[in-house]
C-alpha cells in the first residue's frame, strides 16, 4: 500500500513538473503576441477561476478572515516575479530562462541568513559560487546556438531579477504565512496577482487573436492542475524526492523549446544549467527542515 502511494506520488510529481513547465512554454508563445503584463493577468485570472471551482467542489474551505493583508502581499510579489519571468521568457529560450530561474533557492538561503539570522550551511557559499558561475556562462552565451537572434540585455536583466524577486517573495511569505488550505492560499494569491496586473494589462491591452483563445484557457488550466498535482504529490512523497524530480524541469524546458520553438541549446547553457542544478542540490542538503519545504508558487505560480 505504501509502495503504491509512493509510486502515485512520483507520478503526480512528474505530472506537476510537466504541467508547470508547459505553463512556461505557453507564456513564451503568448508573449510573442501580447504584453508580459497581459500574459500574467490572463494566466492568473484563468487559474483563479479553475482553482475557485476546485475549492468549491472539493476543498470547501474558504479563506479565513484576518489574513487579507498577507494574501495581498503574496499576490503583489507573485505578480512582480511572474511579470519579470514572463518578460524574460518571451525574449530568451525556455531552457535558458528556466536555468536562470533555478538560482532562486540559493538567493533564498542567503536572504534567510540576512533576514532571520539563520546560519548558512557549509555548502551555501560553494552553492553560491556555482550558481553565479552557471549564470555567468548562460548570460555570456546570450542565446547563441538557439534559433532566433541573441538575447538582449533588458531580457537578460529580467531573467536574472526574476529568481531574486522570487526569493524575496518566499521570505515575505515565511514572515506572513496564513494558516489556510494550500489550494485556498494559491487561489487567493492568483486572484490578487491578477488584480495587481490588471491596470498595466489594460494600458497595454492587445485584443488576443481568436487562434490564441485555446492557449489562454490552457495556460490557466495547466497552472491550476500543476499546483494541485504538486500538493497531492507532496502528500505522498518527501519534499526531498520531489526536489529531485523538479530538476527534470530543465529536461521539459529543453523538450518544449525544441518541439515548439526549434531551440537547440549551446554548450555554455548546458554547462551553466548543470552548475546551477549542483548548486541547488548543495543548498538543499543544508535546508531539510520541515518548515522550509519548497512549494512552487512563485516563478511558476
TrEMBL record:
The chain crosses the membrane at residues 41-59, 71-89, 95-116, 123-141, 153-173, 185-206, 212-234, 241-261, 267-284. InterPro entries: EamA_dom, EmrE-like. It is found in: Membrane. The keyword Transmembrane applies. Keywords: Membrane, Transmembrane, Transmembrane helix. SUPFAM superfamilies: Multidrug resistance efflux transporter EmrE (SSF103481). Pfam families: EamA. GO terms for cellular component: membrane. Residues 8-139, 156-283 form the EamA domain. It is a multi-pass membrane protein. Coiled coil: none annotated. Belongs to the drug/metabolite transporter (DMT) superfamily. 10 TMS drug/metabolite exporter (DME) (TC 2.A.7.3) family. PANTHER family: ACYL-MALONYL CONDENSING ENZYME-RELATED, SOLUTE CARRIER FAMILY 35 MEMBER G1. This is Carboxylate/amino acid/amine transporter. It comes from Martelella mediterranea DSM 17316. The lineage of its organism: Bacteria, Pseudomonadati, Pseudomonadota, Alphaproteobacteria, Hyphomicrobiales.
Amino acid at each position: 500500500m505504501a509502495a503504491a502511494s509512493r509510486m502515485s506520488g512520483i507520478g503526480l510529481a512528474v505530472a506537476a513538473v510537466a504541467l508547470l513547465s508547459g505553463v512556461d512554454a505557453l507564456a513564451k508563445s503568448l508573449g510573442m503576441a501580447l504584453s508580459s503584463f497581459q500574459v500574467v493577468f490572463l494566466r492568473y485570472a484563468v487559474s483563479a477561476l479553475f482553482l475557485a471551482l476546485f475549492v468549491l467542489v472539493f476543498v470547501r474551505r474558504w479563506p479565513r478572515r484576518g489574513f487579507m493583508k498577507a494574501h495581498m502581499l503574496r499576490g503583489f510579489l507573485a505578480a512582480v516575479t511572474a511579470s519579470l519571468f514572463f518578460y524574460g521568457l518571451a525574449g530568451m529560450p525556455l531552457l535558458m530562462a528556466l536555468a536562470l530561474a533555478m538560482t532562486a533557492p540559493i538567493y533564498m538561503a542567503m536572504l534567510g541568513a540576512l533576514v532571520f539570522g539563520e546560519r548558512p550551511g557549509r555548502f551555501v557559499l560553494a552553492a553560491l559560487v556555482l550558481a553565479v558561475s552557471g549564470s555567468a556562462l548562460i548570460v555570456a552565451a546570450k542565446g547563441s546556438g538557439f534559433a532566433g537572434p541573441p538575447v538582449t540585455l533588458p531580457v537578460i536583466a529580467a531573467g536574472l531579477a526574476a529568481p531574486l524577486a522570487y526569493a524575496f517573495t518566499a521570505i515575505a511569505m515565511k514572515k506572513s504565512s496564513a494558516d489556510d488550505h494550500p489550494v485556498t492560499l494559491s487561489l487567493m494569491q492568483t486572484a490578487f496577482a491578477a488584480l495587481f496586473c490588471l491596470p498595466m494589462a489594460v494600458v497595454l491591452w492587445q485584443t488576443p487573436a481568436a487562434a490564441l483563445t485555446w492557449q489562454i484557457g490552457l495556460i490557466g488550466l495547466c497552472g491550476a492542475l500543476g499546483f494541485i498535482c504538486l500538493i497531492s504529490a507532496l502528500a505522498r512523497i518527501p519534499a526531498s524526492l520531489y526536489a529531485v524530480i523538479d530538476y527534470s524541469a530543465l529536461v521539459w524546458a529543453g523538450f518544449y523549446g525544441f518541439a515548439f520553438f526549434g531551440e537547440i541549446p549551446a554548450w555554455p547553457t548546458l554547462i551553466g544549467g548543470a552548475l546551477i542544478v549542483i548548486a541547488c542540490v548543495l543548498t538543499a542538503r543544508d535546508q531539510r527542515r520541515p518548515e522550509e519545504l519548497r512549494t512552487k508558487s512563485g516563478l511558476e505560480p
